[in-house]
Amino acid sequence: MGSLSAPIYLEDGSYLERFTNLDYTLPRGSRFSPISWSFTVGDRQTPINLGQALHRSLDYLNHSEDQLFAGCGTKVTYRIMADGYREFAKQMNAQRRVRGQTVPIRRSKVAKQVAQVVEKFIEWASDMSVNPGLRFGPHNITINDIYLVELRQVSPASFQPILAVRRPPPPLEMLDLYPQASISPVDVVGDLTDFTDTWQSLGVFSDSDYYGAL
Asked: What's the DSSP call for residue 171?
């Protein structure tokens, strides 16, 4: 699937907006060739919700039994780099024991580990206000609003989750401001971030209003 270059709409009309970036830089002269894995559900290839990943069995995850992290050693580091926040990193086990053999953990286990790391990140970031459009914690963005798009390898044993947050659909009455536009909220304003900021500047909703009501 790759990263979110365009919004992905969910069944309730909300959409997913990526909020992590790739500022991690490999050392000069590195010959490392990174790989990435997607974490999707169903035929629509929808990114997996991390709230569900944290609390449910992940048999429904596409390719849930695939073994990841082969050749990465016994532990890997997950690095979360959310827009406006300092890097948050946590190390987790990359292997498991099966009938006396050490094997890489499955894709389903990786998704759960990412969910656990993101939960810790939210606790850490909830006291910060460095990005007004991206606040975490109660009444703001919680684990239930975050989706794992993919996991990118940035060094032999270091991986960065590419995450997206669920954003509310545009109020239908506001579309009257743009009678020439189609129903697509991306077409209404043109840029996904400007679109969200426009509704907020008009006082239609705030992030805390939307996430606090969920």
From this structure: P
- Check the CA dihedral 1-10-194-130 and report its sign: negative
State pLDDT tens for residues 26-51. 666 666 677 889 999 998 889 999 99
Domain boundary among 167, 184, 205: 167
Q: What domain range is 180 assigned to? A: 171-214
Indicate the DSSP class of residue 106: B
Which DSSP state fits 67? B
159-185 confidence digits (pLDDT tens): 999 999 998 886 665 445 444 433 343
Query: Which two tokens mark 180?
Result: 């020439």
Question: Measured between alpha carbons, how far is 193 from 53 in angstroms, rounded to an integer?
Answer: 27
145 domain residue, yes or no: yes
Structure pTM?
0.75
Last residue of a domain, one of 146, 167, 188: 167
| 33 and 104 part of one domain | yes
